[in-house]
């Protein structure tokens, strides 16, 4: 089961990376982990993005990190606001960096690195808005079956 892949310390480190990345941005980052992905990984990431209502951020600047651990598939999905702001190959570059960690069995470190990279771009294009900025989406990791 996907939820057992990460220890409580791993989960805490990932959540702390999300919180740290979001400190300097109005953007939102979420992580969803499940065991299997029976369809195309990007199609499944879109389903999860919709299920988590990530499209409801004010600036359309949500980023989803989706992992199907048993099937060894993952995707990064940015909403329209962030996709318009980052270079065309941005998500692919992050995926390559994460994949090298995943191949070494370093799932937590791979996620943290991806989250940090996304956070830097979100901070550049969607800086923190002070008192008017609220955390629009939960920072907790969500798990599927």
Automatic annotation (TrEMBL):
Which superkingdom is the protein from? Bacteria
Concerning Pfam families, the annotation shows: TPM_phosphatase
Q: Where is the signal peptide?
A: none
Occurrences of domain TPM (ranges): 4-120
What InterPro entries would the database entry show?
A: TPM_dom (IPR007621)
Protein name, UniProt field: TPM domain-containing protein
Lineage runs:
Bacteria, Pseudomonadati, Bacteroidota, Cytophagia, Cytophagales
